[in-house]
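re the bet — no i am not wrong, look at it urself. input seq straight from the record:
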Amino acid sequence: MLGGILVQLFTDAFANPSPIDRDTIERISGLALDFTIVSAIATMSFTGLEDSLLPFFILVGVTWIWHLLCFRFLAPILLPDYWVQRSLAELGQSMGVTSTGLLLLRMTDPENQTPALAAFSYKQLLHEPIVGGGLWTASVLPFLKSSGIWPVVGVSCSAVVLWLLVYLFYFRQRYARKRQEEDDGGDGESVSLLASNDAGSEDSATSSSQSPARQASTTSFGTLPRADSCA
């Protein structure tokens, strides 16, 4: 991903027009994504669960409840637009692997018509070095063994609270301004539409107040001479 950003910056700086075709890159990335999803699902292993079925099912049940609550109630509030596509990608990744999230996103947005895939990709730049196989993933098991479960729970809850505060004090204001701008644009269109409707109503009232002879002189072909003027 970082390599792709560097290539794009290089071509934007030294190649005009850019030799990279966006449609071709999207086709290649879509094919690579399909191969990634198929290979990830085909290599999943469930060995070693025979002795831990009860804790496994408890963990799965609690995880399902938490993620479904986040998907149903938090996602429409926290995400600015296309919350179904965006949250399904996060749901699949957090409950499985990145390929699972991309698979769900592919099912809901097969033509890549929403910004969900781009937003998910940019999020990975921050997510992967820390959580997705990064620092926290590598250190959580030694930390859990040395300190117990509650310090790990405290760190996890602190991370959730931190990002909620980031949303409340930064992203919510940006989303509110964006919605306000969209509403203002919609109100402007509504005002124009109301004005045109009012003008049409006035024209209709004027037309209805005209004499029958004047109304009869107007047809779909234009304004015809009135009978009294021809006499």
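see?? The CA atoms of residues 38 and 169 lie 40 Å apart. told u. also The radius of gyration is 30 Å. so pay up
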